[in-house]
Amino acid sequence: MKRAAIAIIGLLLLAGCAGDVKLPEQPSMYVDMSKPGAALDTAAAAIMISQYRQNNGLGTVVVDPELTRLAEQQSQAMAARNKMDHDVKGPLEKRLKASGYPATLAVENVSAGYHTLAEAFSGWRDSPPHKANMLKNGVTKLGIAAAYAPNTKYKVFWTLILAST
Question: Which of 17, 91, 134, 163 counts the highest number of beta carbons within 10 A?
Fold first, then answer.
C-alpha cells in the first residue's frame, strides 16, 4: 500500500513538471502574414523547401541574407504597386547584377494572396513552373519574403529567390 502511495505521488509530481512546458501556439508555417507585425520564419521556409528538395533527390538550400533582402525589395515593390509581377523592379538577372550578387544560377517565384508560408509553398508546389524552380538542380541558397499590404486586393505578396554562387 505504501509503495502504491509513493508511486502515485511520484506520478503527480511528474505530471506537475509537464505543465511547465510551453508549446508554440502554431507552427511558424501557419503564421498569418496578413496581420500587422507578422514575421516570416525564413529558417522554417529553408527547412520546408530543403525537405521537399531532398524528397525529390536534390540538395538542401540555406538562407542567404542578401537574397532575402532582394526578395523583400521585390515583395514590397509588388505590394506598393498592388501588382504581382516578376519585373515590377526589373528582371531578376538585372536586380541580382545591380546588387552585386554573384549568382551563377538563379530562379524566382512570386505569388500573391496566400496568407501563410504553407499556402504559398503549396501554391508553388502545385504550379509546374514554380515547382520546377523549387526543384532547380544546383541551387544552394534562398531568399524569401512576404510583404503585407492591407489596402490591396491580395493583402500579401511573396517572393522566393533560389540561387547558387
Answer: 163
Amino acid of residue 42: T
pLDDT tens-digit series, residues 75-132: 999 999 999 999 998 999 999 999 999 999 999 999 999 999 999 999 999 999 999 9
User: SS3 of 80, please?
Assistant: helix
Under a CB-based contact definition with an 8 Å cutoff, are residues 161 and 45 in contact?
no
Residues 6 or more apart from 152 whose CB is under 8 A from it?
79, 82
The C-alpha atoms of residue 7 and residue 5 are separated, in whole angstroms, by 5
Backbone angles phi, psi at 150, to 5 degrees: -60, -25
